[in-house]
Design brief:
By secondary structure, this protein is of the alpha+beta class. It has one domain. Helices cover 20% and strands 33% of the residues. The protein is elongated and about 55 Å long.
């Protein structure tokens, strides 16, 4: 299994045919869409483990897990909320000879640009999909959580 920094682009069909595995990091600078949503742009490097293969029905796939430390804005106190975003995924490249209805339901479809695919974009997409809709500290640790509805209090002032 290779480790270190992951390549930006990969030949997914070739890696699947060879049954390769990878583990490594993606630099925070390579995740600009995630940084835009982070509190003051604060994110760390992402770490991913990837398993490529071909299933018994002949579908090439990449299965993986990705984690990334991300600072989000608590929607209760509006302060920084340190969080580790995690996602697991199973993707298969779209084949031109198969319509969408025949595509296996246990994989998400990914389109290839020739034989290449942007691994960085896959990892960033998976992290974006895993962000909480309304990030908040737990009530017992949030500076603004005192058992009252702070929005209601602000409206009454």
């Amino acid at each position: 299994m290779s480790e270190g920094f992951l390549p930006q682009r990969i030949n997914l069909p070739q890696l699947a045919d060879l049954g390769r595995q990878m583990a490594g990091r993606v630099k925070a600078e390579a995740l600009p869409r995630l940084a835009q949503l982070a509190y003051e742009g604060r994110i760390g490097d992402a770490f991913a483990t990837l398993d490529f293969g071909v299933d018994i029905q002949g579908w090439r796939y990449v299965r993986g897990k990705v984690t990334c430390p991300v600072s989000l804005q608590c929607q209760r106190c509006l302060g920084a909320l340190e969080n580790v975003i995690a996602s697991t995924f199973a993707l298969s490249p779209a084949r031109t000879d198969v319509n969408e209805k025949a595509f296996p339901k246990h994989y998400d479809m990914i389109e290839l640009d020739g034989l290449q695919v942007s691994l960085t974009a896959i990892i960033e997409d998976e992290l974006l999909l895993s962000l909480p809709m309304v990030p908040m500290h737990a009530e017992n640790v949030c500076p603004a959580a005192n058992g009252k509805d702070t929005l209601l209090e602000e409206q009454q002032l």
